[in-house]
Amino acid sequence: MHEQKSAGTAAVLSALINGLGQIYNGHIIKGVLFILIQALNGFLTTILIGYIFLPIVWVICVFDAYRSAQKINRRANRARF
């Protein structure tokens, strides 16, 4: 059975450190990939292209963590009944 996850907590964790919300949701590989992508984007800010991708990936990461937690909760609720 799936454990309930707080969508708000997942989003806040991912907003603080991209990928942390995914790790909280149990999606370890996805979380680590987001962390690595944002580290690369941070490096790319030295040549200015990172300033474009850094906020885009940040928003995607926060939204993904929120939606993933909601999906986990829906599956947990269906399994309960």
TrEMBL record:
Top-level taxon in the UniProt lineage: Bacteria
Key words, A-Z: Membrane, Transmembrane, Transmembrane helix
The keyword Transmembrane helix appears for this protein: yes
Annotated organism of origin: Aliicoccus persicus
Residue ranges of the TM segments: 45-66
Protein name: TM2 domain-containing protein
